[in-house]
């Protein structure tokens, strides 16, 4: 014990000596941080202005990149929601699809998607002057732009620029949300290879062209300047561009691929296929909810735009109300609060507020979310029981139906307090109830284009792909589960008895027969 005390005492003396030395060594440190900014005392007004300008751009870059990082985490949320709502025999297949679409989407968007969408947009003002290189927009006289042509491989047209790269990163993770949505509606019977091919189609052509028309300076955005329809088509963070486009594709894909085996009885009524892991789906929903703050508020693309606080708060309100309304709706109608519909209600509210989040106040956000919560509860049984469409996760009801509701709600409730200069039109964005019927008309044109382009093109695409490649796995594979046949691995091997464990090829069939009834 004495020896231990001596060692501890010596250690204490050495530590105190080290503390005194370090204090002396860093006596010149600046705990206030006042000296961190290099200054000579002879700076000019121009020097100060340049430093302030750089600080503003630095804040914008950090804001855009960090929110982009968080939007990428959407992939985790979608993977968990979809996998949790599906059966365990397809867990590895569903989870891997949601990861793979990011890999394919990133490559496809890098090759052509970004150029088609933003090649003529002029970039983002808050991310520097390099965006001026994005000046290639193919247009139809009298109508407006239809696609960009600068920025292929992030190289063509002198687009090797930090600001353009930041814009690419942020917009790429948005696009990938659209790629992910159809996987849920086609889960448990779609070929993995077909999803790979479709993901290239979405990231290179389907999404970028519509995105150009709305966000890339295209003809829908120009409806205000060219035809006097408000500010033209407006979608702050993607109810139309991201969610409705993904939802329309989910609808088309579910129709073409058909329902899962056994989903509908001979009398036409639907059979319930419960999800295998509701806790996983709930965690996925929480992840999506958290990332949605960046999804919407990050769309300011400007850390100095204080409206981002309104955007984030409106997002929270609509998502929370959507989930709560859906929960009470199911509770009153069926006697139980239904965890899966509570999740879908929250997601529906988030989808709906994504377009108008910057243009409405908290009360309207509450209303939009409440309507979304009811809509999703009505749409899910309607899609399944009336349309006879099998959507394992409710992607059509969440993203297609409520994406459209979000587009329309902007045209109704935008209050004119924000949006001066958007799409080259002076003044704030106002909806029908605030005196601008033109804005409502522009939003309804957006809905029409979503149906014609979003649903129409994807319906044709899936028919084509089904004919030349095939969309659906073989019936025996679907019944057994897609994991082993499609992926070569099962999601839960500890809960699956393989045939090789039961036959006489086993090293010790006697032991197996002892514990397994043959």
From TrEMBL:
Signal peptide extent: 1-27
Compartments it resides in: Cell membrane; Membrane
Parts of the chain that traverse the membrane: 61-85, 97-118, 162-182, 194-216, 236-257, 278-295, 307-329, 350-383, 440-464
Residue span(s) of domain Ammonium transporter AmtB-like: 62-492
Keywords recorded for this protein, A-Z: Ammonia transport, Membrane, Signal, Transmembrane, Transmembrane helix, Transport
Domain of life assignment: Bacteria
KW Metal-binding (keyword) present: no
Membrane topology recorded in Swiss-Prot or TrEMBL: Multi-pass membrane protein
Main localization (coarse): membrane
Pfam families documented for this protein: Ammonium_transp
NCBIfam families reported for this sequence: amt
PANTHER family membership: AMMONIUM TRANSPORTER
Similarity field: Belongs to the ammonia transporter channel (TC 1.A.11.2) family.
Name of the protein in question: Ammonium transporter
Organism: Caproiciproducens faecalis
